Amino acid sequence: MSILKKVEQFREEEERLRWEGTFADYLELLKEKPWIAQTAHSRVYNMIKDAGVEEVNGKKEYSFFKDQLYGVEESLEKLVEEYFHSAAKRLDVRKRILLLMGPVSGGKSTLVTMLKRGLEQYSKTDKGAVFAIKGCPMHEDPLHLIPTHLRKDFQEEYGIKIEGNLSPLNMMRVEEEYGGRIEDVIVERIFFSEDKRTGIGTFSPSDPKSQDIADLTGSIDFSTIAEYGSESDPRAYRFDGELNKANRGMMEFQEMLKCDEKFLWHLLSLTQEGNFKAGRFALISADELIVAHTNESEYKSFISNKKNEALHSRIIVMKVPYNLKVSEEERIYKKMIQDSDLAHVHIAPHALKVAAIFTILTRLKEPTKQGVDLLKKMRLYDGESVEGFNSQDLEELKQEDPDEGMSGIDPRYVINRISSAIIRKQLTSINALDVLRSIKEGLSEHASISKEDRERYMDFIAIARKEYDAIAKKEVQKAFVYSYDESAKTLMDNYLDNVEAYCNKNKLRDPLTGEEMTPDEKLMRSIEEQIGISENAKKAFREEILIRISAYARKGKKFDYNSHERLREAIQKKLFADLKDIVKITTSTKTPDESQLKKVNEVIARLIDEHGYNSVSANELLRYVGSLLNR
Ligand SMILES: Nc1ncnc2c1ncn2[C@@H]1O[C@H](COP(=O)(O)OP(=O)(O)OP(=O)(O)O)[C@@H](O)[C@H]1O
Ligand SMILES: [Mg+2]
Question: Is residue 182 helix, strand or coil?
Fold first, then answer.
């Protein structure tokens, strides 16, 4: 479809959604669709809920955030349930400013932007529809038209509780334009739009001294005072502050804690009482979600100031920590690269994973649990199974330190280092080693890293490098075998047949000749030795495997290559050990003979076709692994 066609469709859609009628019509509509009178907080909550909620391992995951925020499901659940859900039920938290606290580049702005864009979309749906008094700069809730003394009756008839008073401007308009007949007041459907300043606002403080409260609550329009005769005529006032414009929706308050405290009081009275003072008018009611964000150190200095105590109790703080899963971190980088001008660069497989391993290590706290080191913790967090640990252990690890994820290396740093490596070297292709090197070089220039942290981080670079070595070796060796999984399976089946015969003191039958054979001790040992199982321990190991197999059989589960971690490792190592010499020779000879050259080309082709390399990165990988194997 051409873009013009789409523009036209969009316009038609807007036209279709438009609704205008009298307040009397609106009340009719309300009977049919009572949800259109919901509060701003309730709308935000329903928006998130309506996008879909999934229960994964007893934890809620919201589709609403899925496209943009990765690996922070637990904090999102807390935010949605403890703040939005309670606020939607008109509980007290609604009256507090939501303050997102988290480390730099931890996704706070992303989260707020998603809520804003989400509301814009949601207000176009039936469930998220919003109606307002037409011509009101604050898109006032039409129900405010119902006089206070009739609200109890209204609630009985409609089951809806009205909060907030009619604003001075609309009070005057009802008299002047509608002769006091509220039923005739024109109501329209509105659509949230940050660009059009409807229901979505952003406030960002400037210099505290010159900060003008008018930016928040609007100001007198001096050019019209003469016309209306008085400053207290609401028509002479421009209700165009961010708080006015964000009414019914949400306002983002950037750098809130950098604001002057006098300034903050205004805001707090709004959230607390649901109204604010502007000009010489009675209090103006507003219904909006106010979200601010800050980092931990700013927050700490804010609460350590006694003067801020009262403010503090009017704020609800939600932590937005870093993601702590390697695979999710990799996705974050991919997304950021997609959105940047690096999208055309070839990034070799595993380069981002290795960077993510480093990053996550910097964010994790040293575990105190017996038998767990940082690397094991990292794997458990990422959902890998680690022998000897279960989901209970994982939960315990997570509980160990509530501050975990609030510090460490941020994703933007990694992306900056990748891009600086690319630009400096004018690369069109970048691999894991380039990335690690660039991250390492950057650490010495990074101003906010302490000396101790820098030393720790250097160790993590070394750990990430080791992880990469293992991955790289495995990758090349896999590419050398025509069908890796097949070979692994065959070898394992063979091993298991022998183990079974050994334990049951049976003989095996040769599949070709039908001859009876004793179990192949040499084969079994050659596999077991790979993971350091001694002659004395072999019997126990074999019996344990058989027990595992029968346990699987009992549950009707298939025992396969991935069912026993140590066995899998042994099989892998055995396969690779058999291959090692050929890999070593072919990858490191300077002058390969014809058959070696053929093999190398085959392997490179496989790396490119099946594993996502290009010819540069595939050659680099082979050379690197060659050097590793020759050490
Ligand atoms: N958990 C995450 N999932 C997906 N992307 C993330 C996540 N955390 C950070 N990012 C990405 O990192 C970048 C920086 O995030 P963002 O600007 O939202 O952070 P912030 O917390 O507002 O940072 P600052 O404190 O610097 O304002 C964005 O591109 C964002 O998409
Ligand atoms: Mg931000």
Answer: helix
Instruction: Indicate whether 580 pLDDT > 80.
Output: no
Q: What is the rounded distance in angstroms from the CA atom of residue 201 to the CA atom of residue 194?
A: 6
Q: Which atom of ligand 1 is nearest to the CA of 320?
A: 21
- For 433-445, write each residue's pLDDT tens digit: 999 999 999 998 8
CA 110 to chain centre: 9
Q: What is the pLDDT of residues 322-359, one digit of tens each?
A: 999 999 999 999 999 999 888 889 999 999 999 999 99
Dihedral class, residue 274 (left if φ above 0, else alpha if ψ from -120 to 50, else beta): left
- In 63-106, which ranges are E strands? 97-101
Does ligand 1 have an atom closer than 6 angstroms to the CB of 412?
yes
Position 126 scores a pLDDT of 94
> For residue 112, which atom of ligand 1 is closest to its CA?
18
Q: What is the mean pLDDT of the chain?
A: 89
pLDDT tens track for 598-623: 888 888 999 999 999 999 999 999 98
Predicted TM-score (pTM) of this structure: 0.85
Distances (CA, A) of 563 to 71, 377, 497, 576: 26, 21, 16, 20
State CA 35 to chain mean position distance.
30
Rg (CA), the chain: 33
Task: Fill in the amino acid letter for 256.
Answer: M
- Report the 10 Å Cβ neighbour count for 451: 7
Q: CB–CB of 604/506 below 8 Å?
A: no
DSSP string, 501-561: HHHTT--EE-TTT--EE---HHHHHHHHGGGT--TTTHHHHHHHHHHHHHHHHHTTPPP-T
Residues 6 or more apart whose CB falls under 8 angstroms from that of 366 comprise 374
Q: Could you give the C-alpha distances from 296 to 25, 247, 257, in angstroms and in order? A: 50, 29, 11
Contacts 24+ apart (CB under 8 A), 27-33: 29/131, 30/158, 30/160, 31/158, 33/126, 33/129
pLDDT band at 465 (very low <50, low <70, confident <90, very high): very high
> Could you report the per-residue pLDDT of 386-429, keeping only the tens digit for each?
888 888 889 999 999 988 999 999 999 999 999 988 887 777 88
In this structure, the residue with its CA closest to atom 11 of ligand 1 is 107
Quick one: pLDDT at residue 411?
96
- Written as one string, the DSSP assignment of 267-319 is HHHHHHHSEE--TTSSPEE---EEEEEE-HHHHHHHHHSGGGHHHHTTEEEEE
Measured between alpha carbons, how far is 430 from 345 in angstroms, rounded to an integer?
A: 8
Average pLDDT over residues 138-154: 95
- Helices and strands (H, E) in the chain, number of each type: 28, 18
Q: Does any ligand 1 atom lie closer than 6 A to the CB of residue 336?
A: yes
CB-based contact 129:36 (threshold 8 Å): yes
Q: How far away, in angstroms, is 201 Cα from ligand 1 center?
A: 20
Question: Distance between CA 438 and CA 484 in Å, rounded?
Answer: 33
**Residues in Cβ contact with 552 at an 8 Å cutoff, skipping those fewer than 6 apart:** 558, 559, 563
